[in-house]
Amino acid sequence: MTDGTEEGPPRVAFVTNGNWFSNVGLAPILHSLSAARLPTLVFLTTGLRRQGRSRVLEGIRLARTWGVRLLMLKLLGTVVATVMGVLTRRPLTVSQTCREVGITVAHTRNLNVGEGFAALEAFQPAVLVSFSCPYRLTASVLGQPSIGALNAHSSLLPEYAGVSTYVHVLAEGRCSTGFTVHEMVEKFDAGRILAQSESVIPERTSVFALFHELCVRGGALLEAVVWDALRSGTLSGKPQELSKRSYRGEPTSKQVRQLKARGHAVIRLNDFVALLRPPRPTDGS
Predict the structure, then answer these.
(1) Which terminal residue of the chain, N or C, has fewer Cβ atoms less than 10 Å from its own Cβ?
(2) Is the pLDDT of residue 285 over 70?
(3) Overall pTM > 0.85
(4) Domain boundaries, position 198
């Protein structure tokens, strides 16, 4: 295995909002890195889209944009999952999984500046992984890992770059979507594609169920890419055809109405069964 730093084994850093969906995607690689005893640091970020304004005001803005149904989905993946994880003693969030496997967690509002950036710089990662980080990472952050920075994205890039694309594909009546692991560059969702997996969209599915499925598939994909990068000491991928790029912004209540008109839903009663089930770790090491 190629060293990511001059001394010792390669180090892996993550930045994530840490919610239930992120845990579904990250639990496999967190388990395998812990089993391999590789130095790992997870940054749980509390920052929102616009870093320069009050989190309260930014939260209100996002709630108004999303509408009630999408807001409830977001709360389900954060507040509800955290409480249920404590009550059931199951690791349902990233912080709970890290506690279970002995991985260090650092809390930061903004990894781009201040104490968060200083901690990342001191850690000297070989690989940096972004999974549902709610804001754009700067060139200074992306330049820290010696091998490279990766992002997990819930669409088949270059189509559907942007935010919460699993909502947009349902609203627009797409029959399939997928998951992409790509190299992070300064241009949002535009780096080399490292791996992709396509998924068929079931009829009358929910936003919750589709994103859950994408995170399950994406977690396996991400684990393979990270281990390949650590072993080879490089990122292997192909440039995106940016002429085919499309971008989607923050989903709104309009997209919710559109997906409901197509027979889909934001969340269904049987989706709660998945919420109670912790992700299954793999032995990717």
Answers:
(1) N
(2) no
(3) yes
(4) 12-271
